[in-house]
Amino acid sequence: MKSTFPIFASFLFLFHLTSGISGCASREVRIGETPESFRHQSVPLVGAFKADRYNFGNGLRLIVVENHSSPTFAYQTWFRVGSRDEMKGRTGLAHLFEHMMFKGTKNYKEGEFDRILEEAGVEGENAFTSRDYTTYVQELPKDKLELIAKLESDRMINLIVDDKAFKTETEVVQNERRFRNENSPDGLMYQELFGLAFTRHPYHWPIIGYQEDLNRMNSEDARQFYRSYYSPNHATIVVTGDVDAEEVARTVQKFYGGIPAQPSPIRNIPAEPAQKAKRTKVMKLNIQVEKLLMGCHTPEVTHEDIPALSVLQAILSGGKSSRLHRALVETGISSSVDSNDMSNKDPTLFMIATNLQSGKKASRAEEVIRKELNRIFHEPIPEIELERAKNKLNFGFYESMDGNSSRAYFVGHYEALADSFEVGLTIQKRIQTVTALEAQSVARRYLDSENCSVIIGVKRNSK
Fold first, then answer.
1. Residues 285, 322, 423, 128: is their CA dihedral positive or negative?
2. Could you tell me which residues are beta bridge partners of residue 131?
3. pLDDT tens, position by position, 233-273
4. Strand-pair partners of 28
5. How far is residue 57 from each of residues 203, 256, 266, 420, measured CA to CA in Å?
6. Average pLDDT over residues 372-379
7. Rg over CA atoms, the chain
8. What's the whole-number mean pLDDT along residues 317-333?
9. Domain topology for 8-256
10. Fewer CB within 10 Å: N-end or C-end of the chain?
């Protein structure tokens, strides 16, 4: 399956990163004199790595990070479209189209894309859809750059979107929805949390869409979506590994340069009203132990409070020494606990999730969580605890930047959310200067109970 629909139980990696990189002025040059020429910038990334950014005349963005430690490279294509860009009554179209991209094109029959890449030695071929973007990823031997650029550029413009392909993939997605949502307690709780917390903003609906909307749509909806969003001016290509940046730029120009830009759809996304009171929903599920999922409204990824929220997340659930692990797991109330300061293009949620021990109540876990949060609200955070959280984030960042695919993910993620991966570097640098008072301040500002929604999962036969 070419889809990874994320649920809270398995966070997408690289949400909590940190870097000690310092900023410096970038250099910019124009290559060539034709209308198809591109602009180039070289920007420091981390350690000895730098990122070469190329902006093409048709709006396509390319970022290359050279790393010659092994004869492979990661190739990722990030389209700046996700479930937030869908219309009410047409939910699930972004994820459905992720599946459509693996059908045939005018030049390659269905199945040839995968077969050719498998013969070329592809690893990690996949795709995933989020609320804010859709991404296609591969890792290949170093001599396969022209091959993957040819294949990916072809399906950007030549995909066959007909009734047969649409019907087949709609059935696949409906089965996926039943497996990942309707038959998954975690998936159901995750879906209901966003539905409860968001009343107007498109983050309200699930990425995979509603069943009735999937049944309602047709191939013309998919063709319109393709024309609107799968164009070079809505895409960023990230290449990391054993490549030469200038050669990558020339190759991308060769295969993508002739693809025309498309008008950006006019989309007025409604802002979510401020939440004034706690919202709670109890769900009867096919589970043996109770579960709790809490989400509190937090700002978009570019907001100045994001670094402090990352530090707060590490204080709450970053390892066995964290506050919630000690308060819930070590006391025998829960078997596990985690939190996630989501990073999204628009204001999102800070989530806390816990699975209870047999016989323990989710209501008790919520009391303990609220007690720990109140401690942070009113008591100074010790410096040793603050530094431990920062060190954990710092280690996680450098560890994640060790591989081509994860390095490309970091770059692509922030390019898609904030229009620049340098925003991500700024966040990571700023994490190291967050003070105990700042961490306490964001806790008070965003984790107050009136700003939070809670989903409680109980056994189906519970009274």
1. negative
2. none
3. 999 999 999 999 999 999 999 999 999 999 988 888 999 99
4. 41
5. 32, 10, 22, 18
6. 98
7. 23
8. 97
9. Cytochrome Bc1 Complex; Chain A, domain 1 (3.30.830)
10. C
For CA atoms 387, 388, 392, 395, the dihedral sign is positive
Number of helices (H) and strands (E) in the chain: give both, helices first.
Answer: 15, 13
Please identify which residue in the block is written with the tokens 């939440």: 275
Q: Which uninterrupted H or E stretch holds 153?
A: helix 145-157
CATH number of 279-459: 3.30.830.10
| Cβ atoms of residues 344 and 438 within 8 Å | no
Strand 72-79: give its sheet, edge to edge. Answer: 27-31, 38-44, 50-55, 61-66, 235-241, 72-79, 134-141, 123-129
Contact 226, 161 (CB under 8 A): yes
Return d(Cα 231, Cα 210) in angstroms, integer.
Answer: 26
Phi–psi pair at 303, nearest 5 degrees: -70, 150
CA 370 from centre of chain: 28
Check: CB of residue 430 under 8 Å from CB of residue 21: no
Domain limits, CATH 3.30.830.10, in the chain: 8-256, 279-459
How far CA 246 is from CA of 39, 153, 350, in Å, comes to: 12, 18, 41
For 241-286, the DSSP string reads: ES--HHHHHHHHHHHHTTSPP-PPPP--PPPPPPP-S-EEEEEEES
Angle between helices 145-157 and 112-119 (to 10 degrees): 170
**Which residues belong to the active site?**
98
Structure tokens at 89: 């009554």
- Phi, psi of 382, deg, nearest 5: -60, 145
pLDDT digits (tens, 9 = 90+) for 136-149: 999 999 999 999 99
Q: Considering the chain, what is the average pLDDT of its residues?
A: 91
Q: What are phi and psi of 116, to 5 degrees?
A: -60, -45
Helix (H, G, I), strand (E, B) or coil at 18: coil
Residues 379-390 pLDDT 10s: 999 999 999 999
Classify strands 50-55 and 38-44 as parallel, antiparallel or unpaired. Answer: antiparallel
Q: CA-based angle 425:429:435, to the nearest 5? A: 145
Structure tokens at 251: 């190759």
C-alpha distances in Å from residue 455, one per residue of 51, 288, 338, 397: 42, 16, 15, 31
- Tell me how many degrees the CA angle 409-412-414 measures, rounded to the nearest 5: 105
Residue 132 backbone phi and psi in degrees, to 5: -120, -15
Q: What are the phi and psi torsion angles at 274 (to 5°)?
A: -60, 135
Query: How many angstroms from the chain centroid is the CA of residue 285?
Result: 27
